[in-house]
Design goal:
The complex is a heterodimer of chains A (526) and B (254).
Chain A (H helix, E strand, L loop, with lengths): L1 H12 L2 H38 L2 E5 L8 H12 L3 E18 L2 E12 L1 H7 L5 H4 L7 E3 L2 E4 L15 H28 L20 H7 L5 H4 L13 E6 H4 E5 L6 E5 L6 E7 L6 E12 L4 H4 L2 E5 H7 L14 E6 L5 H11 L5 E5 H4 L1 H39 L1 H9 L4 H32 L1 H12 L6 H4 L10 H28 L2 H6 L2
Parallel strand pairs in A: 3-11, 6-10
Antiparallel strand pairs in A: 1-12, 1-13, 2-3, 2-9, 2-12, 4-5, 6-11, 7-8, 9-10
Helix pairs in contact in A: 1-16, 2-14, 2-16, 2-19, 3-12, 14-19, 16-19
Chain B lengths: L1 H4 L5 H6 L5 E14 L2 E14 L3 E5 L6 H8 L7 E6 L2 E2 L5 H10 L1 E4 L11 H12 L2 H6 L1 H14 L15 H14 L4 E5 L7 H18 L2 E6 L2 H4 L4 E6 L2 E7 L2
Parallel strand pairs in B: 3-8, 3-9, 6-7, 7-8
Antiparallel strand pairs in B: 1-2, 1-4, 4-5, 9-10
The chains are: A alpha+beta (526), B alpha/beta (254).
Chain lengths: 526, 254
């Protein structure tokens, strides 16, 4: 009884002990906040990767792909049984995207994916997650204010139609360009009727100028135009190849010097044309073609947004020569599968591997496909946890030092207790339970502070941003409307318990010293 | 040690008998401290027999080893050579746990500097030996009974008005009376008082001494008091002097 009483009294009267409580508290709170934010980002990242890849991906090992996708899908459905919800066949190939920006050609290496938007949308893990990653379905916010409402309603199916705005601006731009070209031609004719001096502006001539002469000059190997009927077409009609372009390929973030705010500059908008170069199937020959940007694709994963270009599947197959001239069947390089229940993915993958010819395909879940990245994130989190735990350990040494001081200060009391018949074990218990109490209070308050911080993290971020005048969490960089957090109950319990354990361990040494004090010497202590 | 720990209800009779049995005794007690390489002897063969109900005073100059003698006999310290006997049984070689229990049940200590626990109130200080003796559960069950006992003893020493005060709010005499109450609450057989009046003015000192004598006479408590003040010591039954670690008898009132 005296142990508890004295422990409580020491806790209440030794304010120096508060210092060690605070250090435990801060350590615990930091660990909870950092873990929650990290796993929030991790979860968000996983869901974004998952959103692009769907559940299981069957890929051909060659870039030429396989013909007769329907037959393979039938085999997959036979092997996967009831687990398979939907499938989407695609063509994946490397390529290069070229467009000019302020008179300079800009080239980007891209991953070109031929898709059918509807089936692609159907295999995305959450219904509509592919659709909602397209710009025209998104609401655009800047600094919390809505600057643009979604251009399409959510129930409009994904397709390759330009929005009315994009079509209008395309028409307008092409008219301007046409007028400009006509004017140049007229000026050329007037000033240098016989000169053959190359005009440098020709290098960057607008790629939409659809006069026969222009097109031939820009893309001689582009046989797509060879098949076109020679009837007059609407000059403002989009190209046959249509794209969803990753936001990172056509946007950049800059700081407005006047306001100091970060803004997004979009170089190419829906309705603009870009040029894509890739290789044909079979013997790799370079092919290039003009394509119209129909939408901007923004998944939030910079890896994807800076790399992916989605193209209409049939057009990509045609351009790459993947269509069988007899059967008119296009080859595909990958089939994405959405499962009814992702928990059984491993079994499905095993079945598919057994039923598909092994040399031809590789079958992986999205996690296996992104294995190294996910593992890197996990390791990063583990190392950070170790480092943060060291903070709590430091707090433990603080407790040790302060306890030692308190034991020295209480030497005479310990002597008195022993004179009154207290055992060494009893004296030790006082200080151990003192450490336990400090640990419990410290980690309890720490958990409370940590959870409050995580709950109100956006308000805190806003406050700090106001205070420092700099945006700390910039949604235009991360594409998150708010800071993602994910509080894991078992993590919180582990952190709290280990903080308590450290506090108790740190008090063992001072407690042993107290227990070993000789009563007479302790009584004599001044 | 059940026979040692059971309290005899026969004290009063013993006290009035001319030759009461020996209660506490030491045989050839030696104690020396090490200071570096030097062995400093403090007690050099102390033989003393204290009878049940006796009030013994030990005087001596500072450094004569009188406090050490008290500590060794009260099991706070162990002798280098020699034995301590309680009711004829050797107690200084008992296991640590039993000695802790004997300190709690048989001996009551009163110190020169009171040695109250500063964080606890007077009442809590007095209750401390009972808290130490009982487990948390059994203390909790009997807390009312203990509280009454403590209040009764505090009334006896005249501190009823100070129950909720902290030791630093008391005067020296009050602190010493609280310390005596604490020593008595555990109903000890032997009270060991180390200069109980050493820090008090003469009037208060006499008051405290009167309290001790009263306890000795009324309750039959065996008291060993160490002091350097011979005039105070003379009010005891027997007075011995400790010089250079040896005892000599000065007076025997009994």
């Amino acid at each position: 009884m005296y142990k508890l009483l004295l422990c409580v009294r020491y806790l209440r009267t030794r304010f120096i002990a508060l210092a060690s409580i605070i250090s435990v508290m801060l350590g615990v709170a930091t660990m909870i906040v950092v873990n929650s934010v990290m796993s929030g980002f991790g979860t968000e990242m996983r869901s974004r990767i998952h959103g692009i890849l769907s559940d299981v991906v069957v890929e051909t090992n060659s870039l030429d792909g396989v013909h007769d996708a329907d037959r393979w899908m039938k085999i997959i459905r036979g092997a996967g049984g009831d687990e398979i919800e939907s499938m989407a066949a695609m063509v994946e190939i490397y390529g290069m995207m070229t467009y000019d920006y302020r008179g300079q050609p800009v080239m980007k290496t891209v991953q070109l994916i031929g898709i059918d938007p509807l089936t692609k949308s159907a295999v995305s893990p959450d219904a509509g997650s592919f659709q909602s990653s397209l710009d025209s379905y998104q609401q655009i916010k800047e600094y919390g204010k809505v600057v643009r409402e979604p251009l399409r309603s959510a129930d409009e199916p994904v397709g390759w139609e330009l929005t009315a705005d994009a079509a209008e601006s395309r028409r307008h731009r092409i008219e301007l360009e046409q007028r400009y070209i006509e004017q140049r031609q007229w000026e050329e004719k007037r000033s240098q009727p016989e000169s053959g001096t190359p005009d440098h502006t020709d290098l960057f001539e607008p790629i939409n100028a659809k006069t026969a002469k222009e097109t031939d000059k820009v893309s001689p190997p582009d046989f797509s135009h060879g098949e076109e009927p020679a009837v007059a077409v609407d000059p403002a009609a989009p190209q046959r190849a249509q794209l969803y372009v990753g936001a990172g390929l056509v946007e950049f973030v800059y700081t407005d010097e006047e306001t100091g705010k970060t803004k997004v500059m979009r170089i190419k908008r829906p309705g603009d044309d870009v040029m894509i170069s890739t290789v044909s199937a079979g013997r790799p020959e370079p092919v290039r073609f003009h394509a119209t940007v129909v939408d901007i694709f923004k998944s939030g994963m910079s890896e994807y947004d800076g790399n992916l270009v989605f193209c209409n599947l049939e057009e990509l197959q045609r351009i790459r020569g993947m269509i069988d001239p007899q059967t008119k069947d296009g080859a595909v390089t990958s089939i994405q599968i959405k499962l009814k229940n992702y928990d059984r993915a491993a079994a499905v993958v095993k079945n598919l591997q057994a039923n598909l010819p092994p040399g031809l395909f590789s079958v992986r879940t999205w996690e296996q496909k992104q294995g190294p990245l996910l593992a890197a994130v996990e390791i990063e989190k583990a190392i950070l946890n170790v480092l943060l735990f060291l903070i709590i350990t430091v707090a433990g040494f603080g407790i040790l030092a302060i306890f030692y001081m308190i034991v020295v200060e209480k030497t005479r009391d310990i002597g008195i207790l022993k004179a009154l018949g207290a055992t060494s074990r009893g004296v030790m218990t006082i200080f151990l339970s003192y450490g336990l109490a400090l640990g419990i209070v410290g980690s309890g308050v720490g958990v409370a502070i940590g959870l409050l911080f995580v709950t109100y993290i956006d308000n805190i971020e806003k406050g700090l941003s106001k205070l420092t005048g700099r945006k700390i969490f910039d949604e235009t960089i991360y594409y998150f409307p708010k800071i993602p957090t994910d509080v894991n109950a078992s993590m919180v319990i582990w952190v709290a318990l280990s903080a308590v354990l450290i506090a108790v361990l740190a008090s063992v040494l001072p407690a042993r010293r107290a227990a070993r004090l000789h009563p007479v010497e302790a009584l004599r202590y001044e | 040690m059940p026979d040692l720990l059971s309290l005899e209800p026969t004290r009063r009779i013993m006290q009035t008998t001319p030759i009461a049995p020996v209660h506490l005794a030491s045989i050839a007690l030696e104690k020396s401290y090490r200071k570096g390489d030097l062995q400093i002897p403090v007690l050099r063969g102390v033989e003393i027999k204290i009878r049940r109900g006796e009030f013994l005073s030990i005087v001596g100059q500072s450094g004569s080893g009188k406090s050490t003698l008290l500590h060794v006999m009260g099991l706070l310290d162990s002798p280098s050579v020699g034995e301590v006997l309680l009711d004829g049984d050797r107690i200084d070689d008992l296991p640590q746990k039993t000695r802790d229990e004997l300190r709690n049940r048989v001996f009551g200590f009163v110190f020169q500097f009171y040695h109250l626990l500063p964080e606890l109130t007077v009442l809590e200080n007095v209750l401390a030996p009972l808290m130490i003796r009982h487990s948390m559960l059994s203390y909790w069950k009997r807390r009312r009974e203990f509280r009454l006992a403590a209040e009764e003893i505090l009334e006896k020493v005249g501190l009823t008005h100070r129950l909720k005060h902290k030791p630093n709010e008391l005067s020296g005499g009050e602190m010493q009376r609280a310390a005596i109450a604490r020593a008595l609450v555990a109903k000890p057989e032997i009270l060991l008082a180390d200069e109980p009046t050493g820090n008090l003015d003469a009037g208060t000192g006499h008051e405290i001494l009167g309290l001790l004598r009263h306890l000795n006479e009324q309750e039959g408590l065996t008291i060993v008091m160490v002091t350097h003040d011979e005039s105070l010591a003379r009010s005891a039954h027997r007075l011995v002097r400790l010089t250079e670690g040896r005892l000599e008898l000065l007076s025997d009132a009994a």
